[in-house]
Each structure stands twice: as structure tokens, then as C-alpha cells.
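Appendix C reproduces, verbatim, an entry submitted by the partner laboratory led by Prof. M.T., so that reviewers can inspect both the input and the predicted structure.
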Amino acid sequence: MTETRTVRLRPPRNPVERRAVTWWAVRAAAVTGAAAVVLAVLALLIGPLRPWLLAALVLVVLGGAAYAVVVPRIRYQVHRWEVTLDAVYARRGWFLQQWRIAPMSRIQTVDTVRGPLEQRFRLATVTVTTASAKGPVRIDGLDHERAEELVRKLTAVTQATDGDAT
């Protein structure tokens, strides 16, 4: 007879790195700034549409500034992750909530990504890929050293876990 082990599901415990708030805010400000530059240049070049383009510019700047101030703080409150011997858990989203679980036996690859802004803030994103049609489990905003440690741990645990990873 095969023994079945029950895994109790619960929300993941670990918050992302506090520096992720600043990273997310700077990223939002950069996108807002790029859109603002495009609208400003268009307003200078297209005289008949100038009032509309300037109105759009004001809306983009105000909306982007509000987003950059509010949303990163909310993201920090709801983003959580955890790794156990059984699975990788990641929770994200405030309005559209997503809770992803990848059993160790289903993990195919574990990757670390560090874009230029993430490098500046000493952060990294760990991506855990499975055969799921929903895509990988992503853990954003980890301290880069903790991310490297996590990748080493996941690699060791998945190699020692029975399963076919499909």
C-alpha cells in the first residue's frame, strides 16, 4: 500500500526585501517619465493637438506619480514567498490575487534574473519553471545574495526529490 502524505496549504510567510519598494517605485517613475517625454515632444511638434497632448501629459504625470507612491507599498504588503521541502509558494497581487505553488517534484529549472535596476538595488528575481501551462513561479524583490542561496537550495532539493518534473 502506498503511503500518502498530506500537505497543509497555507499562505507563504516570507516578505520580499524592503528595498523592492524603492525598486518598484523607480521602475514606475521611469515608465511614467518615458511616456511624459513622448507626450511633451508630441505637444511641441503638433500644434493643433497641443492642448490635448498637454492635458494627457498632466494626467500621465499625476497618475504615474500616484502609482509610484502607492502601488509599491501595497505590493510589498501582499507579496510573499516560501520554500519548504515539498514546494515553492509565491503570492502576489492586491486586486488580482495570485497564489502559485510548485511542488518540488515538478520543478524543471530555477533561474535568477537581475536587470540593471535590480542590480542597482542589490535585488534579484528567482524564476521557478515547471511544466505548468500557467507559466513559471516568480519571486521578485529578493536580496541578490538570498536569491543565489535560494537557487542553490532549490537545485539541491529538486535533485534529491523523486519525480519526473513533467
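The longest strand covers residues 123-130. Additional entries are available on request from the coordinating office.
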